[in-house]
């Protein structure tokens, strides 16, 4: 993906699901206008979910996920079915491809039940309508033919309509008025990628500009000078979690201060859950297991926060010696029950759906979950202040 393209976490993820030989892969190719999927008459050709980021009109930037058949059999087949269902964790909109010759069978009905439980909007596409006579009775159903192109444009419009029902989310823009000033504090240390800002910083700047507010970007050692040079009082100072302590000391009390991590916990996650979760640090004992989870393997972006700085800070704060485990990318654990606490990164490379699935998994298993920025702010005694854009949560600390 080029540097100018929309990050994967911000793209709408469209998952195509269906039984083997339901014509799902042909449908993916017809919708995308590309040979994304391998099409074959041999059932079960798609063995792993295939993802591709692309521009898809009239939708804009999307990620297409083509999944293996949901009726696969045998040991390997079961694993493939599991992978298909795992893809639901990141699916914003699902297209259920059902062979028009057979209509909805038990496998599709079970999938639809899961989609309903996970509140994922879905469209049922009855395939092969050039050789069958299916009837689409409901408004989320359509008959399509990858061979003749019938129904394909309408299906894209239906996906676009499902997308537009999603709410417009903001990082900070909804708390700004046009003309407001925001100061962003971005330390350029050895963990910072060469020649550019990291994704959460770029996205925050864009969100501020979208709100017709203004921003100044500075480093932590220039913050005092920056504030003195402004002739308007900033509405917010937003900093990297790592320099929270110093930035808090240098920011006058009457200016609201927060961090990129806290804003992203709210943007993609569940800030209340994360604030509740951080209190598990108070009861951590020797040998308690702590999972530190990162959303990608781009370690240059998050440096050694997860592997070095956070564990050291936790040991110092608690005076205990917990056991740490790390995961990164897609390898988030299913069974979290042995952990006393999960600390997740900001998840800038994950889409909102995937971040929510991780939070819900921890919540369902009764395991406290928080994020880097909140944990660091809490241990530095400045969480309350850093929640100032969210006054309803300040009393929890
Ligand atoms: S580790 Fe997390 S916060 Fe850091 S770049 Fe990856 S997804 Fe983003």
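^ structure tokens above, recovered residues below v
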């Amino acid at each position: 993906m080029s540097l100018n393209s929309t990050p994967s976490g911000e793209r709408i993820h469209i998952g195509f699901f269906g039984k083997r030989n339901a014509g799902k892969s042909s449908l993916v190719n017809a919708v995308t206008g590309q040979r994304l999927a391998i099409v074959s008459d041999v059932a079960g050709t798609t063995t792993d979910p295939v993802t591709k980021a692309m521009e898809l009109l009239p939708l804009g930037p999307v990620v297409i996920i083509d999944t293996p058949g949901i009726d696969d059999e045998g040991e390997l087949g079961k694993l493939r079915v599991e992978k298909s269902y795992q893809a639901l964790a990141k699916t914003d909109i699902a297209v259920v491809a059902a062979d028009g010759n057979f209509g909805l069978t038990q496998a599709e009905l079970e999938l639809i039940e899961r989609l309903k439980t996970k509140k994922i909007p879905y469209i049922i596409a009855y395939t092969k309508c050039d050789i069958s006579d299916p009837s689409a009775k409901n408004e989320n159903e359509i008959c399509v033919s990858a061979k003749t192109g019938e129904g394909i444009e309408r299906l894209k419009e239906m996906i676009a309509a499902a997308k537009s029902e999603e709410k417009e989310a903001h990082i900070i823009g909804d708390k700004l008025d046009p003309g407001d000033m925001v100061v962003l504090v971005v330390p350029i240390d050895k963990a910072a990628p060469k020649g550019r800002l990291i994704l959460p910083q770029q996205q925050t700047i864009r969100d501020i500009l979208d709100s017709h507010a203004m921003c100044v970007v500075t480093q932590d050692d220039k913050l005092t000078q920056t504030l003195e040079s402004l002739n308007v009082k900033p509405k917010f100072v937003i900093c990297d979690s790592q320099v929270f302590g110093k930035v808090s000391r240098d920011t006058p009390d009457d200016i609201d201060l927060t961090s990129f991590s806290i804003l992203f916990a709210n943007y993609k996650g569940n800030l209340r859950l994360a604030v509740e979760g951080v209190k598990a640090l108070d009861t951590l004992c020797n040998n308690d297991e702590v999972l530190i989870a990162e959303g990608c393997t781009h370690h240059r972006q998050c440096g050694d926060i997860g592997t070095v700085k956070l564990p050291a800070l936790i040991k110092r704060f608690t005076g205990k010696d917990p056991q740490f485990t790390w995961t990164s990318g897609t390898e988030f654990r299913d069974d979290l029950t042995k952990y006393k606490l999960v600390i997740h990164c900001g998840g800038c490379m994950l889409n909102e759906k995937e971040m929510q699935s991780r939070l819900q998994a921890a919540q369902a298993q009764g395991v406290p979950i928080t994020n880097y920025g909140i944990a660091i702010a809490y241990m530095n005694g400045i969480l309350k202040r850093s929640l100032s854009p969210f006054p309803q949560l300040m009393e929890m600390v």
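Residues 294-296, 298, 301-302, 345-349 surround iron/sulfur cluster (CB under 6 Å).
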